[in-house]
Amino acid sequence: MSSVTIGNPETDGSSLECEVRPSADLERFFTGNPFRTSYDCSVEDVPDGVLAIPVLANVCPVAWADGADIYVDEVDATFARALEDVKASLLGMYDFLEGGTLYAKRTIDAAPAGAGGGDAGGDDDEDGSDSALLFTGGVDSTCSYIRHRDESPTLVSIRGWTVAPDESGAEDWRHLRERVLSFADECDLETAFIETNALEALDHAMLLAHYKRFVDGAWYSSVGHGLGLLGLCAPMAYARGIGDLYVAATHWDGIDLEWGSRPDIDEYVRWTGTECHHDGYELTRQERLDVIADYVESDAPDLELQTCNVRMDGNCGECEKCYRTAVGLRLSGLEPTAHGYPFSHNDYADIRRALEGGEWVLGQDERYMWADIRDRAQETEPGSPEEAAFFEWLLEADLEALVDEAEPPLSHRLFRAGARNAPAPVYNAAYPMLTTAKNGLDRIRGRSR
Fold first, then answer.
1. What is the pLDDT of residues 18-45, one digit of tens each?
2. Which of 9, 267, 321, 401 has the least CB density, counted as fewest CB within 10 Å?
3. What is the pLDDT of residues 86-115, one digit of tens each?
4. How many CB atoms lie within 10 A of CB 227?
5. Are 325 and 309 in contact (CB under 8 A)?
6. Its pTM surpasses 0.85
7. DSSP state, 156?
8. DSSP 3-state assignment of 42?
9. How far is Cα 98 from Cα 69, in angstroms, rounded to an integer?
């Protein structure tokens, strides 16, 4: 019987470590590394049932993909119920997921922080906050901050997905921290920084090899990241008395895409003392830029966004997401160069050339976002002949065909197919090449909400 056993969580001040022991048939989906997460607050007094949440949130979808049961000594009762709701949503979304049962020796109803259960105490604790927001400084999370700024939410940034947990991500993490700290200082907000090896404890390359053919993006973006990222926050939220945790929506009402962060996933995630919220789903991306434009006019004329798919120390101005954001800013009445994007009207010809030439790997979500831009462009007076020509082309462009043409290289697809059926020793020898080919894709697709 397929199974995954979660060891007892061990804490050392602000660090958490947990062993994961899969049955033999599931070993290829795990690297053998313990699951590690570190926080910038002590988690020593957090109950074991809450400490188990980060690893369960990231391991359970992998188990469900193979119909495996999960065994744990202790789990927060509220989160155990949440997992059943999230599982139902994911199984309704994907036919290849089989489900599985969580078996816990003990389910606990922990006392919320501030009621004898944690270090922080909500509104009366000057170091705490009753709300928090996953934050990168991108369009979506910035819009969510603006919508909830009256709550003074703690800004939460996570290293381990879009920013690699190893040395290769050190500079990106430094840039992200500096940017978030600067934003928080300007807005008089608290911050929380979390680092995890979740996608190194999971064999993410093998997950891609097996399941990429079923999803539009990659494993974590398409299946695991809503539950996974929110779950990583549980010990911190418990310790700091966070009652409401927001994650900004990527898509919006009317887009029914298979994606790992949706209202019917994120809104179900909860644990003792904390409810999670999928924020801004009623707004299209262009409408979120309108919210930002209003905020720029009223409060933050020098606001800079960070959405780049290539770098974290600013925006390259040449990748698909940079161009798409710059065009969206113009349609909301903002000058891109004033908000972090090198852009001129001559760039419209380059955008068209890249889209027509299949130079960017696009998914269905990008198709909807360019369609959103097209809808707004029909209501907007062009600012130059170059802009007018681009919008005229976009109005007639077959966006579905542009997505279809953006296929991964054949060599990557063949390698994945071979890896699915390779014996473990053969796969282990080939793993470094597969990792090099694939490691960046999921981080790129999920960057900078």
1. 999 999 999 999 999 999 999 999 999 9
2. 401
3. 999 999 999 999 999 999 999 998 776 654
4. 28
5. no
6. yes
7. E
8. coil
9. 11
* Nearest alpha-carbon partner for 277 in 397, 125, 141, 423: 141
Own/partner long-range contacts of 295-304 (Cβ < 8 Å, ≥24 apart): 295/146, 296/334, 296/339, 300/186, 302/338, 303/142, 303/339, 304/137, 304/339, 304/340
Residue with the two structure tokens 């997401």: 321
Instruction: Return the bridge partners of 245, or none.
Output: 132, 276
Where residue 116 falls (left for φ over 0; alpha for ψ -120 to 50; beta otherwise) is left
Give CA–CA dist 257/333, Å, rounded.
29
Task: Point out the residues of the chain with pLDDT beneath 50.
Answer: 115-128, 409-421, 423-447
The alpha carbon of 63 is separated from its chain's Cα centroid by a whole number of angstroms, namely 20
Closest to 273 (Cα-Cα) out of 68, 115, 71: 115
Q: Provide the 10 A C-beta neighbour count for residue 374.
A: 16
What is the Cα–Cα distance from 275 to 261, expressed in whole angstroms? Answer: 15
Spatial CB neighbours of 73, under 8 Å, sequence gap ≥ 6: 6, 8, 48, 52, 104, 105, 106
For residue 289, give the nearest of 241, 256, 255, 324 by alpha carbon.
324
Phi, psi of 383, rounded to the nearest 5 degrees: -95, -5
Q: How far apart are the first and last CA of the chain?
A: 39
Structural domains of the chain in order of their starting residue, each with its CATH number: 3-122+130-279 (3.40.50), 305-359+362-404 (no CATH)
Identify the pLDDT of residue 309.
87
CB-count exposure of residue 14 (10 Å: 0-12, 13-18, 19+): middle
* The pair of three-digit structure tokens given for residue 145, joined into one six-digit string: 């901050």
CA distance 246 to 141: 9
